[in-house]
Amino acid sequence: MTGRGLSDNRSLNRRMDSLARERESIRRLLDQSDLSTIREGLESLKSRLDAIEKRLSGL
Question: Which string of b and e fits 11-38 if b means at least 16 CB within 10 Å?
Answer without folding.
Answer: eeeeeeeeeeeeeeeeeeeeeeeeeeee
